[in-house]
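User: I'm putting together a small comparison set for a docking exercise, and I want a reference complex before I start. The sequence is below, and the ligand is adenosine monophosphate. Could you produce the 3D structure with the ligand included, as C-alpha coordinates?
Assistant: Of course. I'll restate your input first, then give the C-alpha coordinates for the complex.
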Amino acid sequence: MSAPKIKAPRGTFDVLGEQAEARALLETRARSILEGAGYERIETPVFEATELFARGVGESTDIVRKEMFTLEDGAGRSLTLRPEGTAPVCRAYVEHGMHKRRQPVKLWYLSSFFRHERAQAGRYREFWQVGAEALGSEDPVVDAESILLLATLLSEMGVKGVRLRLSSLGGADSRAAYRERLQAYLHEHEESLSEDVRSRIDLNPLRAFDSEHAGTRRVMESAPRLLDHIGSEDAEHFAHVQELLSVANVAYEIDSTLVRGLDYYTRTVFEFTSDALGAQSGVGGGGRYDGLVQKLGGPPTPGMGWAAGVERILLAGDRQPAAVRAPELFVALADGARGQRRLAAFALLGAARSAGLRAQMELSGRSLKGQLGHAGALGARYAAIVENGETVLRDMQTGGQERIATDTVVHAVLRGLRDL
Ligand code: AMP
Protein backbone atom coordinates (compact mmCIF):
# COMPACT_ATOMS: atom_id res chain seq x y z
CA MET A 1 0.00 0.00 0.00
CA SER A 2 1.47 3.35 -0.95
CA ALA A 3 1.29 6.39 1.29
CA PRO A 4 -1.20 9.13 0.30
CA LYS A 5 0.26 11.84 -1.94
CA ILE A 6 0.80 15.31 -0.55
CA LYS A 7 0.08 18.23 -2.87
CA ALA A 8 1.49 21.76 -2.80
CA PRO A 9 -0.93 24.14 -1.03
CA ARG A 10 -3.63 25.92 -3.03
CA GLY A 11 -2.38 29.01 -4.84
CA THR A 12 1.27 27.94 -4.79
CA PHE A 13 3.37 26.46 -7.57
CA ASP A 14 6.64 24.66 -8.18
CA VAL A 15 9.20 26.21 -10.49
CA LEU A 16 10.56 23.55 -12.82
CA GLY A 17 13.18 23.41 -15.62
CA GLU A 18 12.19 25.83 -18.41
CA GLN A 19 10.36 28.12 -16.01
CA ALA A 20 13.45 28.36 -13.84
CA GLU A 21 15.40 29.44 -16.93
CA ALA A 22 12.80 32.06 -17.82
CA ARG A 23 12.86 33.43 -14.29
CA ALA A 24 16.64 33.56 -14.30
CA LEU A 25 16.49 35.52 -17.55
CA LEU A 26 14.07 38.02 -15.97
CA GLU A 27 16.35 38.40 -12.98
CA THR A 28 19.36 39.03 -15.23
CA ARG A 29 17.48 41.68 -17.20
CA ALA A 30 16.13 43.35 -14.07
CA ARG A 31 19.58 43.43 -12.50
CA SER A 32 21.16 44.90 -15.57
CA ILE A 33 18.50 47.62 -15.99
CA LEU A 34 18.22 48.56 -12.31
CA GLU A 35 21.85 48.28 -11.28
CA GLY A 36 22.73 50.17 -14.44
CA ALA A 37 20.57 52.98 -13.05
CA GLY A 38 22.29 52.87 -9.65
CA TYR A 39 19.81 50.70 -7.74
CA GLU A 40 21.34 48.32 -5.17
CA ARG A 41 19.91 44.91 -4.35
CA ILE A 42 18.12 44.50 -1.04
CA GLU A 43 16.47 41.43 0.45
CA THR A 44 14.36 41.72 3.58
CA PRO A 45 13.04 38.85 5.75
CA VAL A 46 10.12 36.71 4.60
CA PHE A 47 8.25 37.61 7.77
CA GLU A 48 7.98 40.89 9.61
CA ALA A 49 6.16 42.27 12.65
CA THR A 50 2.45 42.42 11.73
CA GLU A 51 2.45 46.02 12.95
CA LEU A 52 4.66 47.02 9.99
CA PHE A 53 1.91 46.23 7.49
CA ALA A 54 -0.98 47.31 9.72
CA ARG A 55 0.63 50.72 10.11
CA GLY A 56 2.43 50.95 6.77
CA VAL A 57 -0.04 49.50 4.27
CA GLY A 58 -3.09 50.62 6.27
CA GLU A 59 -5.73 48.97 8.46
CA SER A 60 -8.50 49.68 5.98
CA THR A 61 -6.88 48.00 2.98
CA ASP A 62 -7.93 44.59 1.65
CA ILE A 63 -4.39 43.37 2.13
CA VAL A 64 -4.41 44.02 5.86
CA ARG A 65 -8.07 43.19 6.47
CA LYS A 66 -8.27 39.89 4.61
CA GLU A 67 -5.13 38.78 2.86
CA MET A 68 -2.31 38.42 5.36
CA PHE A 69 -0.84 35.14 6.51
CA THR A 70 -0.26 35.91 10.15
CA LEU A 71 1.30 33.67 12.78
CA GLU A 72 2.48 33.97 16.31
CA ASP A 73 5.97 33.25 17.52
CA GLY A 74 6.46 31.36 20.80
CA ALA A 75 6.50 34.59 22.81
CA GLY A 76 3.10 35.81 21.61
CA ARG A 77 4.44 38.31 19.05
CA SER A 78 2.42 38.60 15.87
CA LEU A 79 4.36 38.02 12.66
CA THR A 80 3.15 38.24 9.06
CA LEU A 81 4.49 36.74 5.83
CA ARG A 82 5.27 39.85 3.77
CA PRO A 83 2.35 40.71 1.46
CA GLU A 84 4.28 43.51 -0.28
CA GLY A 85 7.77 44.97 -0.43
CA THR A 86 7.59 48.72 0.07
CA ALA A 87 6.89 48.79 3.81
CA PRO A 88 9.76 46.32 4.54
CA VAL A 89 12.18 48.38 2.42
CA CYS A 90 11.17 51.54 4.30
CA ARG A 91 11.56 49.69 7.59
CA ALA A 92 15.09 48.68 6.55
CA TYR A 93 15.85 52.27 5.44
CA VAL A 94 14.97 53.52 8.92
CA GLU A 95 16.58 50.62 10.78
CA HIS A 96 19.91 51.04 8.99
CA GLY A 97 19.96 54.84 9.16
CA MET A 98 20.02 55.09 5.38
CA HIS A 99 18.77 58.69 5.57
CA LYS A 100 22.39 59.54 6.44
CA ARG A 101 23.59 58.28 3.06
CA ARG A 102 23.54 60.31 -0.10
CA GLN A 103 19.94 60.69 -1.23
CA PRO A 104 18.05 59.29 -2.93
CA VAL A 105 18.82 55.77 -1.76
CA LYS A 106 17.79 53.43 -4.59
CA LEU A 107 17.03 49.80 -3.83
CA TRP A 108 15.65 46.87 -5.80
CA TYR A 109 14.48 43.40 -4.88
CA LEU A 110 13.22 40.17 -6.36
CA SER A 111 11.39 38.23 -3.70
CA SER A 112 8.37 36.11 -2.89
CA PHE A 113 5.23 37.62 -1.38
CA PHE A 114 2.18 36.11 0.25
CA ARG A 115 -1.47 37.09 0.03
CA HIS A 116 -4.46 35.03 0.99
CA GLU A 117 -6.35 35.71 -2.25
CA ARG A 118 -8.75 33.65 -4.31
CA ALA A 119 -6.30 31.63 -6.40
CA GLN A 120 -6.79 31.71 -10.19
CA ALA A 121 -4.70 32.06 -13.36
CA GLY A 122 -2.15 34.81 -12.68
CA ARG A 123 -3.18 35.17 -9.05
CA TYR A 124 -1.43 33.10 -6.44
CA ARG A 125 -1.03 33.00 -2.70
CA GLU A 126 2.73 32.90 -2.96
CA PHE A 127 3.98 34.94 -5.91
CA TRP A 128 7.14 36.81 -6.84
CA GLN A 129 7.68 40.46 -7.47
CA VAL A 130 10.55 42.46 -8.81
CA GLY A 131 10.48 45.89 -7.26
CA ALA A 132 12.40 49.15 -7.11
CA GLU A 133 12.23 51.93 -4.52
CA ALA A 134 13.93 55.36 -4.51
CA LEU A 135 13.91 57.05 -1.12
CA GLY A 136 14.86 60.60 -0.22
CA SER A 137 13.94 62.77 -3.19
CA GLU A 138 10.69 64.36 -4.31
CA ASP A 139 12.03 65.43 -7.67
CA PRO A 140 9.58 64.52 -10.44
CA VAL A 141 12.54 63.12 -12.37
CA VAL A 142 12.60 60.30 -9.80
CA ASP A 143 8.97 59.50 -10.64
CA ALA A 144 9.54 59.55 -14.37
CA GLU A 145 12.78 57.57 -14.21
CA SER A 146 11.20 54.94 -11.98
CA ILE A 147 8.29 54.46 -14.40
CA LEU A 148 10.69 54.39 -17.35
CA LEU A 149 12.75 51.61 -15.73
CA LEU A 150 9.69 49.39 -15.42
CA ALA A 151 8.63 50.24 -18.98
CA THR A 152 12.11 49.18 -20.13
CA LEU A 153 11.97 45.89 -18.23
CA LEU A 154 8.54 45.04 -19.65
CA SER A 155 9.70 45.84 -23.13
CA GLU A 156 12.90 43.79 -22.77
CA MET A 157 10.84 40.84 -21.57
CA GLY A 158 8.63 41.18 -24.64
CA VAL A 159 5.44 41.86 -22.66
CA LYS A 160 2.69 42.32 -25.22
CA GLY A 161 -0.16 44.84 -25.32
CA VAL A 162 1.25 47.06 -22.59
CA ARG A 163 -0.74 50.09 -21.44
CA LEU A 164 0.32 52.60 -18.80
CA ARG A 165 -2.31 54.37 -16.73
CA LEU A 166 -1.24 57.36 -14.71
CA SER A 167 -2.78 59.64 -12.12
CA SER A 168 -2.00 61.76 -9.10
CA LEU A 169 -3.57 61.38 -5.67
CA GLY A 170 -2.24 64.75 -4.50
CA GLY A 171 -0.90 65.36 -1.02
CA ALA A 172 -2.34 64.30 2.32
CA ASP A 173 -4.39 67.52 2.77
CA SER A 174 -6.17 67.47 -0.54
CA ARG A 175 -6.75 63.76 -0.12
CA ALA A 176 -8.43 64.22 3.26
CA ALA A 177 -10.71 66.95 1.91
CA TYR A 178 -11.52 64.85 -1.15
CA ARG A 179 -12.25 61.81 0.97
CA GLU A 180 -15.01 63.68 2.77
CA ARG A 181 -16.47 64.90 -0.50
CA LEU A 182 -16.45 61.37 -1.92
CA GLN A 183 -17.97 59.92 1.25
CA ALA A 184 -20.84 62.43 1.06
CA TYR A 185 -21.38 61.50 -2.61
CA LEU A 186 -21.36 57.76 -1.84
CA HIS A 187 -23.83 58.21 1.02
CA GLU A 188 -26.15 60.05 -1.38
CA HIS A 189 -26.11 57.03 -3.71
CA GLU A 190 -25.92 54.32 -1.09
CA GLU A 191 -28.88 52.32 -2.40
CA SER A 192 -27.16 51.64 -5.76
CA LEU A 193 -23.84 50.48 -4.27
CA SER A 194 -22.67 46.95 -3.63
CA GLU A 195 -22.85 45.67 -0.08
CA ASP A 196 -19.06 45.62 0.13
CA VAL A 197 -18.56 49.20 -1.04
CA ARG A 198 -21.40 50.44 1.19
CA SER A 199 -19.82 48.86 4.25
CA ARG A 200 -16.56 50.63 3.52
CA ILE A 201 -17.74 54.17 2.78
CA ASP A 202 -16.29 55.40 6.02
CA LEU A 203 -13.28 53.12 6.11
CA ASN A 204 -11.96 53.27 2.55
CA PRO A 205 -14.23 55.15 0.13
CA LEU A 206 -11.59 55.30 -2.64
CA ARG A 207 -11.84 51.58 -3.24
CA ALA A 208 -15.31 52.14 -4.69
CA PHE A 209 -13.47 53.01 -7.94
CA ASP A 210 -12.13 49.44 -8.13
CA SER A 211 -15.52 47.76 -7.79
CA GLU A 212 -16.79 45.51 -10.55
CA HIS A 213 -20.38 45.72 -9.34
CA ALA A 214 -22.54 47.20 -12.14
CA GLY A 215 -24.56 49.57 -9.93
CA THR A 216 -21.44 50.84 -8.20
CA ARG A 217 -19.71 51.39 -11.53
CA ARG A 218 -22.62 53.51 -12.74
CA VAL A 219 -22.49 55.62 -9.59
CA MET A 220 -18.72 56.01 -9.89
CA GLU A 221 -18.94 57.34 -13.45
CA SER A 222 -20.15 60.67 -12.10
CA ALA A 223 -18.31 60.60 -8.79
CA PRO A 224 -16.00 63.52 -8.00
CA ARG A 225 -12.42 62.75 -9.07
CA LEU A 226 -9.45 63.28 -6.82
CA LEU A 227 -7.35 64.47 -9.75
CA ASP A 228 -9.67 67.50 -10.10
CA HIS A 229 -9.13 68.43 -6.46
CA ILE A 230 -5.38 68.16 -5.91
CA GLY A 231 -3.40 71.21 -4.71
CA SER A 232 -1.47 73.46 -7.09
CA GLU A 233 1.98 72.15 -6.09
CA ASP A 234 0.81 68.59 -6.58
CA ALA A 235 -0.66 69.52 -9.95
CA GLU A 236 2.63 71.11 -10.97
CA HIS A 237 4.57 68.04 -9.88
CA PHE A 238 2.21 65.86 -11.89
CA ALA A 239 2.58 68.07 -14.96
CA HIS A 240 6.38 67.70 -14.74
CA VAL A 241 6.13 63.92 -14.50
CA GLN A 242 4.01 63.89 -17.65
CA GLU A 243 6.43 66.13 -19.56
CA LEU A 244 9.35 63.93 -18.58
CA LEU A 245 7.56 60.76 -19.67
CA SER A 246 6.73 62.35 -23.01
CA VAL A 247 10.37 63.33 -23.55
CA ALA A 248 11.32 59.71 -22.82
CA ASN A 249 8.70 58.49 -25.33
CA VAL A 250 6.75 56.58 -22.70
CA ALA A 251 3.10 56.48 -23.81
CA TYR A 252 0.51 56.84 -21.03
CA GLU A 253 -3.15 57.55 -20.44
CA ILE A 254 -4.38 59.71 -17.60
CA ASP A 255 -6.90 57.71 -15.62
CA SER A 256 -8.48 59.63 -12.77
CA THR A 257 -10.19 56.48 -11.50
CA LEU A 258 -6.85 54.84 -10.75
CA VAL A 259 -6.63 54.19 -7.03
CA ARG A 260 -4.17 51.67 -5.79
CA GLY A 261 -5.02 49.19 -3.09
CA LEU A 262 -2.57 50.53 -0.56
CA ASP A 263 -3.01 53.52 1.73
CA TYR A 264 0.47 54.94 1.58
CA TYR A 265 0.36 56.46 -1.87
CA THR A 266 0.58 60.22 -2.44
CA ARG A 267 0.93 62.20 -5.67
CA THR A 268 1.96 60.02 -8.66
CA VAL A 269 0.36 56.59 -9.03
CA PHE A 270 0.58 54.33 -12.07
CA GLU A 271 -0.19 50.88 -13.33
CA PHE A 272 0.94 48.87 -16.31
CA THR A 273 -1.54 46.39 -17.75
CA SER A 274 -1.17 43.88 -20.55
CA ASP A 275 -3.86 42.84 -23.04
CA ALA A 276 -2.21 39.43 -23.13
CA LEU A 277 -3.46 38.68 -19.61
CA GLY A 278 -7.03 37.78 -18.72
CA ALA A 279 -8.95 39.22 -15.79
CA GLN A 280 -5.77 39.73 -13.80
CA SER A 281 -4.36 42.25 -16.27
CA GLY A 282 -2.08 44.24 -13.94
CA VAL A 283 1.58 43.51 -14.61
CA GLY A 284 3.07 46.08 -12.30
CA GLY A 285 2.47 49.39 -10.67
CA GLY A 286 3.43 51.77 -7.95
CA GLY A 287 3.75 55.41 -7.10
CA ARG A 288 4.93 57.95 -4.58
CA TYR A 289 4.64 57.39 -0.85
CA ASP A 290 5.98 60.58 0.68
CA GLY A 291 4.69 59.93 4.21
CA LEU A 292 5.50 56.26 4.67
CA VAL A 293 9.01 56.41 6.14
CA GLN A 294 7.87 58.93 8.74
CA LYS A 295 4.86 56.79 9.59
CA LEU A 296 7.30 53.95 10.34
CA GLY A 297 9.27 56.08 12.80
CA GLY A 298 11.84 57.58 10.42
CA PRO A 299 12.50 61.19 9.46
CA PRO A 300 10.25 62.87 6.87
CA THR A 301 11.40 61.19 3.65
CA PRO A 302 9.77 61.16 0.24
CA GLY A 303 9.71 57.87 -1.65
CA MET A 304 8.76 56.49 -5.02
CA GLY A 305 8.67 52.92 -6.30
CA TRP A 306 6.94 50.02 -7.99
CA ALA A 307 6.54 46.29 -7.97
CA ALA A 308 5.80 44.01 -10.90
CA GLY A 309 4.61 40.41 -10.82
CA VAL A 310 7.24 37.96 -12.06
CA GLU A 311 4.67 35.31 -13.07
CA ARG A 312 2.56 37.86 -14.93
CA ILE A 313 5.55 39.29 -16.81
CA LEU A 314 6.38 35.76 -17.94
CA LEU A 315 2.75 34.98 -18.82
CA ALA A 316 2.45 38.14 -20.92
CA GLY A 317 6.00 38.09 -22.29
CA ASP A 318 7.44 36.41 -25.33
CA ARG A 319 11.01 35.86 -24.22
CA GLN A 320 11.77 32.22 -24.73
CA PRO A 321 14.12 30.93 -22.09
CA ALA A 322 17.38 29.60 -23.41
CA ALA A 323 17.20 25.80 -23.61
CA VAL A 324 18.65 24.18 -20.52
CA ARG A 325 22.33 24.31 -21.34
CA ALA A 326 23.57 21.21 -23.06
CA PRO A 327 26.75 19.59 -21.78
CA GLU A 328 29.92 20.02 -23.80
CA LEU A 329 31.19 16.69 -22.56
CA PHE A 330 29.36 13.58 -21.44
CA VAL A 331 31.57 11.12 -19.59
CA ALA A 332 30.46 7.53 -20.31
CA LEU A 333 31.78 4.21 -19.03
CA ALA A 334 32.72 1.32 -21.30
CA ASP A 335 30.74 -1.84 -20.52
CA GLY A 336 32.19 -4.33 -18.05
CA ALA A 337 34.72 -3.97 -15.19
CA ARG A 338 33.24 -0.72 -13.99
CA GLY A 339 35.02 -0.11 -10.67
CA GLN A 340 38.34 1.28 -11.91
CA ARG A 341 36.75 3.01 -14.85
CA ARG A 342 34.29 4.78 -12.64
CA LEU A 343 37.18 6.30 -10.70
CA ALA A 344 38.95 7.38 -13.89
CA ALA A 345 35.69 8.76 -15.29
CA PHE A 346 34.93 10.69 -12.12
CA ALA A 347 38.42 12.19 -12.15
CA LEU A 348 37.93 13.20 -15.80
CA LEU A 349 34.58 14.83 -14.91
CA GLY A 350 36.30 16.95 -12.26
CA ALA A 351 39.15 17.91 -14.59
CA ALA A 352 36.68 18.92 -17.31
CA ARG A 353 34.71 21.13 -14.92
CA SER A 354 37.88 22.73 -13.55
CA ALA A 355 38.75 23.63 -17.12
CA GLY A 356 35.39 25.42 -17.41
CA LEU A 357 33.54 22.79 -19.47
CA ARG A 358 29.88 21.96 -18.88
CA ALA A 359 30.27 18.28 -18.14
CA GLN A 360 28.01 15.48 -16.93
CA MET A 361 28.66 11.83 -16.14
CA GLU A 362 26.64 8.65 -16.36
CA LEU A 363 24.74 8.23 -13.09
CA SER A 364 22.26 5.43 -13.72
CA GLY A 365 24.22 2.30 -14.66
CA ARG A 366 23.07 2.32 -18.32
CA SER A 367 24.69 0.11 -20.95
CA LEU A 368 27.17 1.89 -23.22
CA LYS A 369 24.54 2.08 -25.94
CA GLY A 370 22.09 3.54 -23.43
CA GLN A 371 24.66 6.06 -22.27
CA LEU A 372 25.36 7.30 -25.80
CA GLY A 373 21.62 7.60 -26.42
CA HIS A 374 21.31 9.62 -23.23
CA ALA A 375 24.26 11.86 -24.18
CA GLY A 376 22.55 12.49 -27.53
CA ALA A 377 19.26 13.35 -25.86
CA LEU A 378 21.05 15.85 -23.62
CA GLY A 379 22.55 17.46 -26.73
CA ALA A 380 26.12 16.73 -25.56
CA ARG A 381 28.79 17.91 -27.98
CA TYR A 382 31.31 15.19 -27.10
CA ALA A 383 31.11 11.87 -25.30
CA ALA A 384 34.17 10.37 -23.63
CA ILE A 385 33.95 6.59 -23.26
CA VAL A 386 36.41 5.89 -20.50
CA GLU A 387 38.20 2.59 -20.59
CA ASN A 388 41.23 2.59 -18.33
CA GLY A 389 44.21 4.73 -19.26
CA GLU A 390 42.56 5.28 -22.62
CA THR A 391 39.36 6.92 -23.68
CA VAL A 392 37.39 6.93 -26.89
CA LEU A 393 36.39 10.52 -27.58
CA ARG A 394 33.33 10.71 -29.77
CA ASP A 395 32.20 13.80 -31.61
CA MET A 396 28.43 13.56 -31.17
CA GLN A 397 27.73 15.83 -34.13
CA THR A 398 29.85 14.06 -36.76
CA GLY A 399 29.92 10.61 -35.19
CA GLY A 400 33.73 10.57 -35.68
CA GLN A 401 35.80 9.16 -32.85
CA GLU A 402 39.39 8.73 -31.77
CA ARG A 403 41.16 6.75 -29.05
CA ILE A 404 43.37 8.99 -26.90
CA ALA A 405 45.02 8.98 -23.48
CA THR A 406 42.44 9.82 -20.82
CA ASP A 407 44.49 12.69 -19.47
CA THR A 408 44.42 14.44 -22.86
CA VAL A 409 40.62 14.37 -23.22
CA VAL A 410 39.97 17.80 -21.71
CA HIS A 411 42.52 19.33 -24.03
CA ALA A 412 41.04 17.65 -27.06
CA VAL A 413 37.53 18.83 -26.19
CA LEU A 414 38.68 22.42 -25.61
CA ARG A 415 40.52 22.36 -28.93
CA GLY A 416 37.52 20.89 -30.71
CA LEU A 417 35.18 23.54 -29.30
CA ARG A 418 37.58 26.32 -30.22
CA ASP A 419 37.95 25.10 -33.79
CA LEU A 420 34.19 25.05 -34.37
P1 AMP B 1 0.53 45.32 -5.95
O1 AMP B 1 1.58 45.18 -4.90
O2 AMP B 1 -0.81 44.81 -5.52
O3 AMP B 1 0.51 46.67 -6.57
O4 AMP B 1 0.95 44.31 -7.11
C1 AMP B 1 1.98 44.59 -8.02
C2 AMP B 1 2.02 43.49 -9.04
O5 AMP B 1 2.29 42.24 -8.42
C3 AMP B 1 0.72 43.26 -9.78
O6 AMP B 1 0.62 44.12 -10.90
C4 AMP B 1 0.82 41.82 -10.20
O7 AMP B 1 1.61 41.70 -11.37
C5 AMP B 1 1.59 41.19 -9.06
N1 AMP B 1 0.68 40.54 -8.09
C6 AMP B 1 -0.01 41.09 -7.07
N2 AMP B 1 -0.72 40.18 -6.40
C7 AMP B 1 -0.50 38.99 -7.01
C8 AMP B 1 -0.94 37.64 -6.79
N3 AMP B 1 -1.74 37.32 -5.80
N4 AMP B 1 -0.48 36.68 -7.64
C9 AMP B 1 0.36 36.98 -8.65
N5 AMP B 1 0.81 38.23 -8.90
C10 AMP B 1 0.40 39.23 -8.09
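The domain at 17-171+230-316 is CATH 3.30.930.10 (BirA Bifunctional Protein; domain 2). The mean pLDDT is 93.
User: Thanks, that's exactly what I needed.
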